[in-house]
Design goal:
Layout lengths: L38 H14 L16 E3 L11 H14 L14 H14 L3 E5 L2 H12 L5 E5 L4 H10 L2 E5 L4 H10 L5 E6 L11 H11 L2 E5 L11 H4 L8 E6 L9 E5 L1 H10 L1 H4 L6 H16 L2 H17 L8 E5 L3 H13 L2 E6 L10 E5 L6 H18 L1
Parallel strand pairs: 1-10, 3-4, 3-5, 5-6, 6-7
Antiparallel strand pairs: 2-8, 7-8, 9-11, 10-11
Helix pairs in contact: 2-11, 3-11, 4-5, 6-7, 12-14, 13-14
The chain binds 4'-deoxy-4'-aminopyridoxal-5'-phosphate (PMP).
4'-deoxy-4'-aminopyridoxal-5'-phosphate binds next to helix 4.
């Protein structure tokens, strides 16, 4: 979407495929008569086009405690505010300082990182792990380090933006397959025999909330000698050690897991888990790892504390599953695999109106509409986290029931 264009500036609305809403602005980057519009004109035009298309995004800062029932975030187990997690972060900052101080290969690898990596690997049943400063970096690193122009990447149509960007940066040949279509994955791999291939999936899809057929995908990958990369951002924690583990796929040499520390683990950062040879390859070649400062001590310690809590308190994940199942049945939609319930709405306007009405009732939910959703269906995204009390949850469900039921 950001490729420079040479045509005259245009006001046409962004295409549906344009996730950031900037496709239509490419033309504003230059002109055929050689005169480049001044940057401030270009920016004003870009803002105007976004506004006209109703696609302006705004940051809405929240206070530390705004009294809202938050069903929009990803702090699924409610651990970001757990006292042990907060204390661990504070103590680590006091002991190690505010930052890691350097990239991991210079002096930015702390014993704290090694502790976190060992404990994450042990929990997820993987032989090795590597921590990153974000889950986004973890995904950029895996694809970038393992795929180049000569490689073939087979990606689910609903894969997260970080993996989309990772494939773009890698310049690998790409086949996008329909969502959860194992036969299409098999056909894509069979079409390029002998080419080094990666298959990308999320264990639980971030917006749709459904689950990938991991066992079947792994089987197809084995048949064709491909590597399966599973993003467990929404699986780890909500499903204990994740769905790769639950499907008996942990520790295999042809399966790699990426994870984030910023959702169920209530911190910030990411991780890649898998065979030691793959992890070693990342340390040596992954640019978003090599040229990035190590994960901050406070974030590392918070994730470590949260890992210990998540491991020893499976009832938190049980609460999520009970809540999400109850809400799904109220809407007559299938129970999702993770903590996220995706409620399809009749129109973008209906979705936006329901979100605003819920906010007025003290309940915050997410709202997705085109072009952020590849299938064009506007939806509310409700997170059934364990971090809210039973009373708050019941109050929120009542409001959702009334408001969403009315406008859907
Ligand atoms: N993968 C998926 C599926 C995600 O939902 C996210 C976060 N939105 C990421 C990766 C990126 O993780 P992080 O926020 O830690 O960068």
């Amino acid at each position: 979407p950001l490729g420079g264009g040479v045509s005259r500036p245009t006001q046409s609305p962004p295409r549906k495929t344009d996730r950031v809403g900037l496709d239509s602005l490419a033309g504003a980057r230059g002109s055929t008569d050689g005169a480049t519009p001044p940057w401030d004109d270009w920016l004003a035009e870009a803002a105007g086009a976004r506004e006209a298309a109703g696609l302006t995004r705004r940051l809405r800062p929240r206070g530390a405690d705004d009294g809202l029932v938050d069903l929009a975030g990803n702090d699924y187990l409610g651990l970001s505010r757990h006292p042990e997690v907060r204390h661990a972060a504070a103590e680590a900052a006091m002991r190690w300082g505010g930052g890691a101080g350097a990239s991991r290969l210079v002096t930015g690898t702390l014993t704290l990182h090694e502790q976190l990596e060992a404990e994450l690997a042990d929990w997820l049943g993987q032989p090795a792990a590597l921590a990153f400063s974000t889950g986004y970096h973890a995904n950029l690193s895996v694809v970038g380090a393992l795929a180049d122009r000569s490689a073939h990447v087979v990606s689910d149509a609903h894969i997260h933006a970080s993996l989309v960007d990772a494939v773009r940066l890698s310049r690998a040949q790409l086949t996008v397959v329909p969502h959860n279509d194992v036969a299409a994955v098999r056909a894509a791999l069979a079409a390029r025999p002998g080419v080094r291939s990666l298959v990308l999936a999320e264990s639980v899809y971030s917006v749709l909330g459904d689950e990938a057929p991991l066992a079947e995908l792994a089987e197809v990958c084995t048949e064709h000698g491909a590597l399966l990369v599973v993003d467990e951002a929404h699986g780890v924690g909500v499903h204990g050690p994740g769905l790769v583990h639950r499907n008996g796929l942990a520790g295999r040499s042809d399966v790699l897991v990426t994870a984030t520390l910023s959702k169920s683990l209530g911190s910030q950062g990411g991780a890649v888990l898998g065979p030691p040879a793959a992890i070693d390859h990342l340390v040596n070649t992954a640019r978003p790892f090599i040229f990035d400062t190590g994960l901050a001590p406070a974030s590392t310690a918070a994730a470590l504390a949260a890992t210990r809590i998540a491991r020893t308190r499976p009832e938190l994940a049980d609460t999520i599953r009970a809540r999400v199942a109850g809400l799904a049945s109220a809407f007559g939609i299938p129970s999702p695999a993770g903590a996220v319930l995706s409620v399809p709405m009749a129109s973008p306007e209906a979705a936006v109106a329901a979100q605003a009405d819920l906010l007025a009732e003290g309940v915050r939910v997410g709202c997705f509409r085109p072009p952020s959703v590849p299938d064009g269906v506007s939806r509310l995204r409700v997170t059934a986290g364990a971090g809210v009390t039973d009373e708050e949850w019941e109050r929120a469900v009542k409001a959702i029931d009334t408001i969403v039921g009315e406008v859907r």
